[in-house]
Amino acid sequence: MDTRWQTHEVTGQELLTADRVTLRVNLAADYRVVDPLRAVREVKDFADALHLALQLAFRKALGALTLDALLADKVAVSDEAAAEVRREMAAIGLEVGAIALKDVILPGEMREILNRVVTAQKEAEANVIRRREETNATRSLLNTAKVMAENPVMLRLKELEALEAIAGKVERLTVHNGTEGLMTDLVKLRD
């Protein structure tokens, strides 16, 4: 009898979650025979016994959860059922190591619905970020406006920067009344 560590897989296990969503899961468990005599005396086929124990324990544990809870923490779910499987297998001479919930496979229509929900959530998050940035930009403009209202020299500097930006984009600029007239006519400051 081989007493080395081996892997046993349960594939395509269908189950119904607490919120009545049908899904399939794939499980994997590492095991080894530690008591060969007990393993052949207690059950006809210890690999079949392990398979059945994994199926039942995980069907019970996962069936008690909603789909959201299952998808949120797959690792914790496998730990709940793992202790039960280890106890049962120890009674027939097997040591069970790591047990993992490898895959959660949703039916096509449920996968589409879930994808739409995730897309809507991400769009809402992006919208919140966009609104937050717009609010920050508006606040910044308000602060700039307050500084300029209190300081006419700062306003003149901003006007010159704007004029420089405009002048850089036009091919030819004709100034009438000199630069003093241009600046006075361009923007008139209130006293």
Can you characterise this structure?
The chain has three domains: 6-106, 2-Layer Sandwich (Tetrahydropterin Synthase, Chain A); 108-150; 151-191, no CATH class. Strands 1-2-3 form a three-stranded antiparallel sheet, covered by helices on one side. Helix 5 packs across helix 6. Helix content is 62%, strand content 18%. The chain is α+β, with helices and mostly antiparallel strands and 191 residues long. The longest helix is centred in the last third of the chain and has 43 residues, at 108-150. It is built from seven helices and three strands.
Q: What is the makeup of the main sheet?
A: 3 strands, antiparallel
Number of helices, where a helix is a run of at least 4 consecutive DSSP H or I residues: 7
Q: Based on helices, strands and strand pairing, what is the structural class?
A: alpha+beta
Percentage of residues in DSSP E strands:
15-25%
* Average pLDDT rating: 84
SSE blueprint:
Layout: E1 6-16, E2 22-33, H1 36-42, H2 46-63, H3 67-72, H4 74-90, E3 94-105, H5 108-150, H6 152-169, H7 178-186
Antiparallel strand pairs: 1-2, 2-3
Helix pairs in contact: 2-4, 5-6
Characteristic key phrases:
alpha+beta; 18% strand; 62% helix; 3 domains; 7 helices; 191 residues; Tetrahydropterin Synthase, Chain A; single chain; three-stranded antiparallel sheet
